[in-house]
Give the backbone structure.
Amino acid sequence: MGPAVPNLKNPTEGARRAAELIQRDPSLVGLTAELIDRETGLLELIETLEAILAEAGDLVESRSPELVAQARAAIRRSGDSSPRAAE
């Protein structure tokens, strides 16, 4: 059995943008975006990165502020526009 993936009600914006480029039928864009999120594991990676930043962001930022800034930028680009625990 594969890893548990959260049931998405709203796909990430990155997956939606990709689906809009791939899918010509507008009625299938949402389904395609959900599939992209599920199959790539992107949502799980974003949530894990956000949890790491929430738990240890200050420690990492004290050593490498550029790394934290890059991680947060990647979350903004690939994930939902609404910040969660990492911000």
Summary: Residues 1-8, 82-87 have pLDDT under 50 and may be disordered. The first helix runs from residue 13 to 22. The two ends are 33 Å apart (CA to CA). Residues 28 and 44 are 23 Å apart (CA to CA).
